[in-house]
């Protein structure tokens, strides 16, 4: 099993060099097998991709992806042959177990015989929604056929085994909200509320907020008071970044729709306004998504 | 270039050199007693040896740099009003330099072919990419009597630190770089020209290493800004057009070093903001900016930057990958002019869509062609870990294949995930 976070860019801090005429001149590129012009020697990043070095941290809200590989490790001249390989996987989360859909490239057919040294690779994806311990359980079954010397099949049996991979999902964003009614709002226009939100980045890396939205109940409409506030002239660098432990404050104005449907009020007299949804990207474009529970007004 | 010291005069500067650090600032941890403090007998006893080796050393070309004002100033000792020559013997103490073991190397790289004896001439070691031996050799030359001339001290010190970073001994290099202390101290200014006597490349290197060595992440960013201030001043005052150009180039380089330093300390948003301010907005600069945005995950900004680059840009597939669309990225990569790097990125994409067999075939194909850059061996090792129980064995075989490539420098265990 290998986790499939996005591949990373090669990173190498450029070595300042003396003039080429100097006897102390070093050609680090030749030693590192980089041909002239292949890489940018003055910049730390290079467009050469590397696979994720390790599992890394798993965060709530992230789209978790990993690849599973079944390999035939039998020696090439073995009399046993492996076929009908089936891989099944499920994710055990603190609240229950869900089966996972396995994707594979379209060219493979599941009944194909797995020759010695060959591998079957599958990819699974799972949205991490809960904090805490997760276990990826992988069941593998295959038919093992023993061939006699004259290549006539003699005996076969089905074998199965199970592998477990455990990891912990940690929170990436902490969301604190505060709902207040806008004072002096004209009662004929309906009620107005201000939603203030503090987002704290609890992850180890910087995240870029892609979109934040307050999805209201039908009785209300919301206006973002943030960076995406109707400014078509700003096209880029407009998404805020949040460094680890940084807190970003955002706000929404929620207004009752005139002639809209009636408000939904809970048993204890709170009005349900809507819920907040946040989309972000972390390093190299890995995505995350989070939505809060229903936010309500204070009890009257 | 090699000009031996006159043998009669060689004792005089030595006596002078004992007047240590009168004008040097901020030098803690000085030895209060040392071999130089001992009475005359030692000084006179060591004299003949020094003479003998000095003449011998004079036959070896001394690495010099454009900054070599100190060499000539050592000769006219007779003038009594002359300031005493600066004493750099604090760089010659063996305890500064860490011994290097071969144990961190994969066994195939421990052979004499890759680790020739440090007695081999330094330029040979450098041109053959024997950086580990070169690091040891430069430390040995620094610590063995007679003390090398000033410019050679700095050149050797640079070689030592540069080689350590090249063999992945960054912590050692960072620790050893502290021996120079404050590289902007007036002590390092030439008495007549008032310019810093340390080679430029050494100053750039030491700024980064000291930042790491003192665990002060932002120190390197400030250090480059300080050099930029100096470069700006010299551009203004310099009367020599060649020198003005040199300092302009250096100032431009420093702009990129600041970005590199910000990225190294993990502040990619600051690096992006800094790169946005640089001019001219050449395709090279825009590519660097786009890569920074992609690494940061600010993909809309990356897209915007890429749209002002000529298409098809080799960076477009990278953006597609960041968006998670590997099949499209594969199509885009195949449309680019073929190169080894495109092939290696293609192999990475194939891995993400579940075609590990093809991926291995491409990567191994590159190794068969004699390629061995870090990303290639690292990725192949990662795939081996996944798709064979004998991953370690396969990685070991890979080390052997890379080691046999002609002219290849040493590789560490990290290159093969060993």
From TrEMBL, chain A:
Region named Disordered: 1-20, 90-114
Record's GO cellular component terms: TRAPPIII protein complex
Pfam families: TRAPPC13_M, TRAPPC13_N
UniProt cross-references to InterPro entries, sorted A to Z: TRAPPC13, TRAPPC13_M, TRAPPC13_N
Domain Trafficking protein particle complex subunit 13 middle, chain residue ranges per copy: 173-296
Residues covered by the Trafficking protein particle complex subunit 13 N-terminal domain: 3-169
Name of the molecule in the record: DUF974 domain-containing protein
Organism: Cladonia borealis
Origin organism lineage: Eukaryota, Fungi, Dikarya, Ascomycota, Pezizomycotina
From TrEMBL, chain B:
InterPro entries listed in its UniProt record: TPR-like_helical_dom_sf (IPR011990)
Region (Disordered): 1-80
Domain of life: Eukaryota
GO cellular component: Golgi apparatus; TRAPP complex
Biased composition (Polar residues): 44-57
Full protein name: TPR-like protein
């Amino acid at each position: 099993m290998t986790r499939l976070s996005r591949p990373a860019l090669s990173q190498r801090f450029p070595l300042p060099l003396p003039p080429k005429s100097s006897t102390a001149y070093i050609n680090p590129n030749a030693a590192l097998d980089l041909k002239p012009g292949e890489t940018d020697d003055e910049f730390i990043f290079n467009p050469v991709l590397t696979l994720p070095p390790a599992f890394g941290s798993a965060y709530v809200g992230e789209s978790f992806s990993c690849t599973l590989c079944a390999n035939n490790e039998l020696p090439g001249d073995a009399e046993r042959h492996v076929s009908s390989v089936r891989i099944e996987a499920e994710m055990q989360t603190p609240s229950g177990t869900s089966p996972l859909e396995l994707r594979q490239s379209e060219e493979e057919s599941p009944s194909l015989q797995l020759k010695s040294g060959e591998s079957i690779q599958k990819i699974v994806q799972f949205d991490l929604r809960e904090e805490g311990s997760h276990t990826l359980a992988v069941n593998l079954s295959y038919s093992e056929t023993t061939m006699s010397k004259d290549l006539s099949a003699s005996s076969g049996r089905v074998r199965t085994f199970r592998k477990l991979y455990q990891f912990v999902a940690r929170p990436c964003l902490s969301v604190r909200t505060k709902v207040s009614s806008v004072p002096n709002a004209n009662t004929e226009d309906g009620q107005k509320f201000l939603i203030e939100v503090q987002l704290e980045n609890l992850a180890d890396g910087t995240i870029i907020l892609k979109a934040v939205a307050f999805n209201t109940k039908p009785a209300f409409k919301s206006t973002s008071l943030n960076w995406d506030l109707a400014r078509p002239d700003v096209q880029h660098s407009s998404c805020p970044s949040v460094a680890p432990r940084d807190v970003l404050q955002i706000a929404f104005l929620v207004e009752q729709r005139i002639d809209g449907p009636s408000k939904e009020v809970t048993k204890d007299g709170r009005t349900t306004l809507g819920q907040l949804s946040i989309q972000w990207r972390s390093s190299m474009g890995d995505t995350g998504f989070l939505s809060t529970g229903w936010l309500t007004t204070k009890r009257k | 270039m090699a000009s031996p010291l006159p043998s009669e005069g060689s004792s005089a500067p030595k006596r002078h050199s004992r007047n240590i650090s009168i004008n040097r600032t901020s030098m803690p941890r000085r030895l209060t007693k040392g071999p130089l403090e001992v009475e005359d007998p030692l000084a006179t006893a060591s004299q003949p040896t020094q003479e003998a080796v000095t003449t011998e050393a004079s036959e070896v070309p001394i690495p010099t740099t454009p900054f070599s004002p100190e060499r000539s100033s050592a000769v006219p000792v007779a003038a009594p009003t002359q300031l005493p020559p600066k004493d750099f013997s604090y760089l010659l103490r063996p305890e500064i330099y860490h011994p290097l073991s071969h144990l961190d190397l994969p066994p195939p790289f421990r052979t004499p072919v890759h680790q020739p004896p440090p007695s081999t001439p330094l330029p040979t070691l450098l041109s053959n990419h024997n950086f580990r031996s070169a690091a040891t050799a430069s430390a040995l030359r620094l610590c063995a009597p007679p003390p090398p001339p000033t410019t050679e001290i700095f050149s050797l010190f640079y070689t030592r630190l540069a080689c350590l970073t090249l063999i992945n001994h960054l912590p050692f290099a960072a620790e050893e770089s502290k021996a120079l202390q404050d590289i902007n101290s007036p002590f390092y200014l030439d008495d007549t020209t008032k310019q810093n006597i340390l080679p430029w490349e050494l100053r750039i290197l030491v700024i980064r290493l000291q930042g790491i060595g003192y665990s002060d992440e932002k120190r390197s960013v400030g250090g480059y800004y300080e050099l930029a201030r100096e470069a700006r001043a010299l551009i203004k005052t310099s009367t020599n057009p060649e020198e003005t150009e040199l300092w302009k180039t250096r100032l431009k380089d420093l702009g990129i070093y600041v970005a590199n330093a910000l990225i190294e300390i993990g502040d990619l948003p600051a690096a992006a903001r800094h790169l946005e301010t640089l001019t001219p907005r050449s395709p090279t600069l825009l590519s660097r900016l786009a890569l920074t945005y992609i690494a940061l995950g600010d993909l809309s900004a990356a897209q915007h930057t890429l749209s002002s680059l000529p298409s098809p840009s080799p960076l477009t597939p990278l953006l597609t990958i960041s968006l998670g669309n590997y099949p499209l990225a594969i199509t885009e990569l195949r449309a680019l002019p073929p190169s080894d790097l495109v092939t290696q990125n293609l192999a990475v994409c194939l891995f993400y869509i579940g075609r590990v067999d093809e991926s291995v075939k491409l990567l191994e194909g590159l190794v068969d062609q004699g390629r061995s850059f870090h990303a290639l061996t690292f990725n192949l090792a990662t795939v081996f870990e996944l798709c064979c129980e004998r991953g370690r064995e396969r990685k070991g075989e890979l080390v052997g294949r890379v080691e046999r490539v002609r002219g290849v420098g040493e590789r560490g265990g990290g290159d093969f995930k060993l």
